[in-house]
Amino acid sequence: MKWNRGMTHNSAKADPAPLGLMGFGMTTVLLNLHNADLVPMGGAILAMGLVFGGATQFVAGLLEYANGNTFGMTAFMSYGAFWLSLVVLLFLPHWELAPASSPGLMGSYLLMWGLFTAIMTIGTIRASRMHQVVFSSLTVLFALLGLAEILQQPVLTLVAGYEGLFCGFSAIYLAAVELLAGQVGHATAPVDVTPLPVEVPA
C-alpha cells in the first residue's frame, strides 16, 4: 500500500490514523486561524482542542497501540496530550491554580514540542511525502510559535498562523486520502511526489 508507506497497520483491524490525523488537522486549522489574526480566541477553539484534538487523538493512539504501530501510538497520544495540556495551561490561571506562564516559559514549552516533532519527522523518512510534509511543517510551526513567545515578536505569531494553516490542511488532506483509500482499496489522491528523471550524459 504505497499510499500508507512506512505507516502500516494490521489490515484485520480498523485503521485509526485518519481519525487521529483529522483530529489533529482540524484543531490545528482552528487554532491557527486565531494565530493568523483571522478570528479571535473563543470557546470553539478550546472545545475542539479538548475533545477532538486532545481526547480523540489520545484514543487513536491507544488504537494504534492495539495495532502494534509504535510510531502512530507515540504521535497520536503525544499530540493528544499536547492539546489537552495546552487547554489546561490556558485555564489554570483562570482557576487560580497556577500563575500564568511567562513568555520565556511558554516559548520553552513550545520549543520542547518542536524538538519532539523534529524527532518524529526523522521517523517519517520511510513514510509517504505527505507524512513528511505534515511533520516537518509542524516542526517549523512549533519553532515559530516558541520564538514568537521568547522574543515577544507578534509578527512571528502571524507568520506561524499561516504556516499552521498549511500544516493543518496538510494533515486533513492526508487523513482524507487514507480514509478514502481504506474504502476503495487504493489511494484516491497523490501522497507521494514522483522524483524528476535524471538525465545521464552519453
TrEMBL record:
Keyword vocabulary terms for this entry: Membrane, Transmembrane, Transmembrane helix
Gene Ontology BP, a term: succinate transmembrane transport
GO MF annotations, alphabetized: acetate:proton symporter activity
Entry membrane topology: Multi-pass membrane protein
Locations listed in the record: Membrane
Transmembrane segments: 43-63, 75-95, 107-125, 132-151, 157-176
GO CC annotation, single: plasma membrane
InterPro entries referenced in this protein's UniProt entry, alphabetically: Gpr1/Fun34/SatP-like, SatP
Similarity field: Belongs to the acetate uptake transporter (AceTr) (TC 2.A.96) family.
Protein name per the record: Acetate uptake transporter
Organism placement in taxonomy: Bacteria, Pseudomonadati, Pseudomonadota, Alphaproteobacteria, Acetobacterales
